[in-house]
Amino acid sequence: MKDFPIPVSLIGPGSQPEEEQLNYMQMPGGMNTFQIPLLPEPEDVRDLIAAREILMQAYHALQNYQEGDAPVCIDLTSLDHENLQLLNQLLGEGEVSANIGSDSHTIQIQESVYAGLWRVRFVDNMGLIVTDHIEVGHVPTAIGVAGRSGIKTLVLKEEDIPGVINAPAILAEIAEHMDKLDVAHVINLTLMPFTPEDGMYVDSVLGRSKVSLLSRGYGNCRITLTAMSRVWWVQFFNSTDTPILNTIEINDIPEVALAAIEDIQDSAVRLVDVIKWIS
After folding, report:
1. Which of 20, 21, 115, 226 could form a disulfide with 263 if both were Cys (CB 3.0 to 4.6 A apart)?
2. How far apart are CA 64 and CA 113, in angstroms?
3. 201-239 residue pLDDT tens
């Protein structure tokens, strides 16, 4: 699992001077489609029973998962090196990655190539893995907990700052929807005048957390949790890494980061084929 910086970029009508050259982080291009990881020869892994048992547990969790279920956790800390290596090889790396930072540790999250099957590791400040487990579900528990752990009330400022056009209205709209816990709300900044001064003002009021996600599909989606509870910057880039959509989403977790139930069910079918191959 790789670390990645996710800056909040300001895009939209009026947000950048025409002559400015934007330099965005280089990201993979093109459409990411499912690819079965490189499979070992069955005779080479015949003795690695523990890894096969973990995969069977994951398969049953995927097969039985229903919309709205809590994630199912499968501990990996007791696996020896050979079984863990096989598991790493077979799970691969899927579309969504996340980092959740704190003063004492970092939670590293990587979706496997099987949608809805996630690898979650707690790593201390010395870089040592404290816990390692699989979660099966729409999204790992830690992301949802982090999304709800920020500041609950948005304090609006009354300031007249040159260049600020829509920031006060945007912040008022965010404040209005923060308490509506059962309804997601998206503010599309790309469709409105949104100046650099607007961006800096909104960013200064919302603040930043140490929670960031990257979703790779056709292009990329970079997601950053603000310091406010349930308030996320969600930015979309096309396959050439050109910014195309800049939004603020008020939700427990942005929709783009969730594994769909249909994909989870499809993952069960794909995973069982791999299990049959190595058994």
Report:
1. 115
2. 19
3. 999 999 999 999 999 876 789 999 999 999 999 999 988
Q: Burial code of 105-115, b = ≥16 C-beta within 10 A, e = fewer?
A: bbbbbbbbbbb
The mean pLDDT of 6-35, rounded to a whole number, is 43
The type of residue at 267 is S
Strand partners of residue 91: none
* Triad 149, 155, 156: Cα angle to 5°: 140
The answer to whether the beta carbons of residues 71 and 140 sit under 8 Å apart is yes
Q: Give the pTM.
A: 0.83
d(CA 175, CA 44) in angstroms, rounded, equals 58
Alpha-carbon gap, residue 191 to 172, rounded angstroms? 18
Name the residue among 45, 48, 51, 34 with its Cα closest to residue 111. Answer: 34
CA Rg, the chain, in Å?
21
Pull the structure tokens for residue 20.
Answer: 């400015």
Note whether 27 and 266 are within 8 A (CB). no
The DSSP bridge pattern shows strands 129-136 and 117-124 to be antiparallel
